[in-house]
TrEMBL record:
Species of origin: Promicromonospora kroppenstedtii
Protein name: 2-oxoadipate dioxygenase/decarboxylase
Enzyme Commission code(s) on record: 1.13.11.93
Pfam families hit by this protein: HGLS
SMART domains: DUF1338 (SM01150)
Species classification: Bacteria, Bacillati, Actinomycetota, Actinomycetes, Micrococcales
Entry keyword set: Dioxygenase, Iron, Oxidoreductase
């Protein structure tokens, strides 16, 4: 009898990404349209650009590539999510505080679970932006509301014992036999399905008045995938094609502008998903049907990862664009998004060089170096950005909310940082810059070894 097949973490990750995508396509039909259009855009881009189209990832990787977003309520839930993703070889990377990322602030802190090894990213780069409610933040929640939220969150179970036991086994043993893998994938997918359980109307509305994100996280007894994002090779083309199909996108592409130089970091855009039917339990115990609009569609294009210096230049450019746009808007109430893009492009032209070689020479972007087997010396390859941007993330959250909520600016926020997040996770939190630097160092060491020279 043949030995039963065994699924390694990357195979669990790839299968989970597919299973979640199938589930989400049934729940949110506009997502399927987005996938169709993304495939068209990518196929056309490859036809037009040939081998160059694959400099930042093979077309096989990009076609399967997704990121998801989920939101949980407590450190316990966060540590459980870490176990489920740990089974799939996804590690927590980066700390994002979205409570004061510009004017659009939401009461959450976040990390991203993703593979960290180059070979693992190439096999399947599935990543999940994972946010956690900060109930202790007095700018959003009074002490009384915090206590009731904590009671509500403490009484629910998002991830059952069977799922967690399988996750722990997969992590300890480096995978699962086929039958257990199937069960793990079924339970993990179900944990992120939209629940049909009636929502307590008074509780949901009370939280919504403070923050729509707080209601989405703490107003219901389950969690759900909030969005699933495909990657495209030309996001401007995708934006135009979606609008042509009658799907209204948010008015801007977040992140760097379109310009003539190399694409860096991440550009993202989104559209509001349709209202989804949900049942509510009213204060008199009556069950009524209504709808909620909390989920949406998002798409992204990924560019070259920036070094700390490159990132500082990016952050300064974002501030400069904001200030210039605010001044222009004050002079002209008819100021448009197209005009803002013009300003952004001008700032970009004086901030970043227009060639990859200069980006590498000025140490603004990350690149690996490999010895060319044909003997033509050392070849430089850009490293793709695998992470997120706090400013864009807050913008994506905010642009899809029904209301701004009410924030008490007279109160102090609660300190949360990367160490706090690591404690909540019960795991090391990886620094994205360290991961990119490590990748470069390893490529240099290998190249030096091949050439028989001292890497220094
Ligand atoms: C997460 C928003 C952030 C991104 O791509 O920056 C995000 C959320 O809405 O839960 O997904
Ligand atoms: Ni997203």
């Amino acid at each position: 009898m043949p030995a039963p097949a065994f699924l390694e973490p990357w195979q669990l990750r790839a299968a989970f990404a597919r299973s979640l995508s199938d589930m989400y396509g049934k729940e949110v039909p506009a997502y399927t349209t987005l996938l169709d259009v993304s495939h068209e855009v990518n196929a056309d881009f490859v036809t037009q650009h040939g081998a160059d189209a694959e400099r930042l990832g093979s077309i096989a990787r990009v076609t399967a590539e997704r990121h998801g977003a989920i939101r949980v309520g407590t450190p316990t839930e966060m540590s459980q999510v870490a176990r489920v993703f740990g089974a799939m070889g996804m590690r927590p990377v980066g700390f994002y505080d979205l409570r004061d990322a510009s004017s659009s602030s939401v009461p959450v802190i976040s990390t991203a679970f993703r593979p960290i090894e180059r070979s693992e990213l190439a096999r399947n780069p599935f990543r999940v932006f994972t946010s956690m409610l900060v109930t202790a933040d007095r700018r959003f929640f009074t002490a009384d509301l915090e206590r009731r939220l904590e009671n509500f969150l403490g009484a629910r179970t998002l991830f059952g014992p069977d799922l967690l036991a399988l996750a722990d086994r997969a992590e300890a043993e480096g995978g699962l036999p086929e039958d257990q893998a199937a069960e793990f994938l079924r339970l993990a997918t179900a944990a992120f399905e939209l629940s049909a359980e009636p929502v307590d109307q008074a509780w949901y509305r009370e939280l919504e008045a403070v923050s729509a994100v707080a209601a989405d996280i703490g107003g219901i007894a389950s969690t759900h995938i909030n969005h699933l994002t495909p990657r495209v090779l030309d996001i401007d083309d995708l934006y135009a094609r979606m609008e042509a199909r009658g799907i209204t996108m948010i008015d801007a592409i977040q992140g760097p502008p379109r310009w003539e130089g190399p694409d860096v970091l991440l550009r993202q855009t989104s559209f509001r998903a349709l209202a989804e039917p949900r049942t509510f339990r009213t204060a008199d115990g009556e069950i009524i049907s209504d709808s909620l609009r909390v989920r949406f569609g998002e798409v992204e294009a990924r560019g070259i990862a920036l070094t700390r210096a490159g990132r500082a230049a990016y952050d300064a450019a974002v501030v400069e664009i904001d200030e210039a746009a605010a001044a222009a808007r004050a002079d002209d109430p008819g100021f448009t998004e197209a005009q803002r893009q013009e300003i952004a492009r001008a700032v970009w032209q004086k901030t970043f060089p227009t060639t990859e070689a200069a980006l590498a020479d000025q140490e603004l972007g990350w690149f690996t170096y490999e010895v060319d087997p044909a003997g033509a010396g050392v070849v430089r390859q850009p490293i793709v950005y695998e992470d997120f941007l706090p400013r864009s993330a807050a913008g994506i959250f905010q642009s899809n909310l029904t209301s701004d909520g009410a924030k008490d600016a007279s109160q102090e926020g609660t300190d949360r940082d990367a160490d706090w997040m690591a404690g909540a996770l019960g795991r090391d939190l990886n620094d994205p810059f360290d991961l990119y630097a490590d990748q470069v160092a390893r490529s240099l060491a290998t190249a030096a070894e091949t050439l028989g020279v001292d890497p220094a």
